Amino acid sequence: MTYLHSIGEYFLMLKGVFGRMTKRSVLKDLIFKEIDELIIGSLGIVCFLSFFIGAVVAIQTALNLNNPLIPKSLVAFAARQSVILEFSPTFISIIMAGKVGSFITSSIGSMRVTEQIDALEVMGINSKNYLIFPKIIAMLTYPFVIAISMFLGILGAYVAAVLGGFVKPDDFVSGLQDDFVTFHLIYAFIKTFLFAFILATVPAYHGYYMKGGALEVGQASTTAFVWTSVVLIITNYATTQLLLS
Amino acid sequence: MIEVKNLRKAFNGEEVLKGLNFVFDRGKTNLIIGQSGSGKSVFLKNMLGIFTPEEGTIEYDGKPYSEFTDEERRELRKEIGMVFQGGALFDSMTVKENVMFPLKMFTKMKKAEMEERVDNVLERVNLVGADDKMPSEISGGMQKRVSIARAIVNRPKYLFCDEPNSGLDPTTATVIDNLIQKITHEFDITTIIITHDMNSVLEIGEKIAFLKDGLLAWTGTKDEIFKTEDKTVTDFVYSSDLFKKVRKAQLKGY
Description:
Chain A: It comes from Zunongwangia profunda. Chain A: InterPro entries: Permease_MalE. Chain A: This is ABC transporter permease. The complex is a heterodimer. By secondary structure, chain A is mainly α. Chain A has ten helices and no strands. Chain A has one domain (about 20-245). In chain A, helix 2 (about 25-40) crosses helix 6 and helix 4 (about 75-115) runs parallel beside helix 9 (about 180-210). Chain A is elongated, with a radius of gyration of 21 Å. Chain B has helices at about 40-45, 70-80, 95-105, 110-125, 140-150, 170-185, 200-205, 220-225, 230-235, 240-250, and strands at about 1-10, 15-25, 30-35, 55-60, 65, 80-85, 160, 190-195, 205-210, 215-220. At the A-B interface, helix 4 and helix 5 of A face helix 2 and helix 3 of B.
């Protein structure tokens, strides 16, 4: 019953988020601020992780290809498919659930604890729209982060495979181009958009409805990370089943 | 003026407010006092529209809140200033941005006009020079003054204060009390203050409502509260050692 209550409360929160809108000029500033904090602020860690994940995928694949009948270009093919289909959209989103999700929960949660949300409501401001809507709009730029992640993941694979002496540069490029299916990219970006919405709203829900003090803000951040990850994984499974099978 | 008629509020079947009637006068500091759990905060939240009463009406300048349309309620809220117990300043904004916030949200003023209004209000609360500081960089007393500045910057008709001097030293608490009273008279605001602090009652209690167990146990002024023989009130007023001594002296005729 608690889960059902939370799910209902989450959707009621979404109704409030898209309810009465905040003044446009104020909203514009808030969106830019959120893009800076949520997206630009995450680029460093995303770039770092993507490059090395791509590199590790390439090395692992190369080390497991012992059969001389299998062409070495398969290393690039495997790296490309892994990075585009799963590592960039899903793995990076799980990392973002920890980084961005915790930030969203703790920032909204601490506003709840210190009566800042009550202050907004008393002033007649739709606090759900004011606090959560700009985050959702800012997260619409999340696919750009994932595009950068895909590029760096494949670059990492190239660097590790070629400089590590596992594959020749020409073979790698040839492998990258083998059996390329454009729809795989579309699939990856469709789920990235869904993940972006989940990353903005599930942690926001946990922050907005939290009760208690500073300790509970920390607990809410942890709970938000767990539930955001769970929802991401289930959504990943559902979209894959719907779009690829 | 705010008039409360037969206000009742219950939680899970337990009645917290048991039929309150009171008139909060315009241009006066109206105090709601009482022990913890007497229903003061619930009373305030009903007046702010955060809670909906089971029974009774709250009239803002003669019009019952329950008859307000959604649009009218939003308009009314723009006329309400609120000073929260902890200040409730937006910690991602500077002092100036905090005070300017209601103007940005609800007016079409130009930036220069807003800045002029904010400067005036900050001067009014003795906070000149603190404009660019973050709330975490200023003292508790200064935070309260910023909160008051934010509450009055849009020239509200009603000012609600939830224990505005809790956690402050006696000198700063007196400064805050006097500031609220001055502003109330200057802008002719209906001010409602929740407090436990008998020093505040002594300083600014122009009209006092004493709540006990969800009932209005006593009403009067700061002069009357120290003369009353009502035992419910005297038990509360003279609970501290200092006031006990004052009471003894009063009874001895000093």
